[in-house]
Amino acid sequence: MLEITGLGHSYGDHHVLRDVNLTVAEKELVTIVGPSGCGKSTLLRCIAGLIAPTAGSVVLNGTAIDGVPDGLAVVFQDYSRSLMPWLTVRDNVALPLRRRGLGKGERRAEALRALRSVGLEDAAAKYPWQLSGGMQQRVSIARALAYRPSLLLMDEPFGSVDAQTREDLEDLVLRFHRDEGMTILLVTHDIDESVYLGDRVVVLARDPGRIRKELTVTLPPDRDQIATRADPAFVRLRAEVGRLVRGGAADGGAADGGPADHLASE
Question: pTM, whole model, 2 decimals?
């Protein structure tokens, strides 16, 4: 579905990203993790067409991205700035559906369906500022789901909520990935989250930002915040990702940029 080839981005003489090559298959959930300043958000913005890379290409569903493509939605970390405070929750969710050419009644029906799926149907007539932070982020997710994108990009979407809400939202994303077969690319700074959510973890290095390692996660698809995190395979992979993020070598001394490793539950 998504093919990134030789992607680079620079601000003057400062190279933020260099020679990034990555493919994402349909219905795959890929997490991207790395140290601060490694270009995670810049990479996501290049994929979204929000900024143009200075080198390489991004191809979505066979078409090179030149500007924001129609079949894509983005959930940002700062939900308070991505929701329109003068619109109701329902109208916030329905807003991008105008781009789909749906009538007013259809837009409202789709918005309510999406809100129901995230447990916020009763909040449809409220305004974003009347909701908690976690509820506002659910509205952002519902807006993306209502659009029914072929690819959902999430840029550290849970970084501004408390720990319990974060776990609830992680499980919400997993449920939609499983039930809807949605293709998701999620950037996070949280190592545990990258392993818990991902079918595959992509670890970035910095100076300049580049892919250091890809790790395939073969944990059971039905994951649980307690049982999965206690699984020995989860613990081993989390430790390996942590070493890579901090600049250490992977288990077995694997070189940077090598083929994806596989960790399975025993």
Answer: 0.85
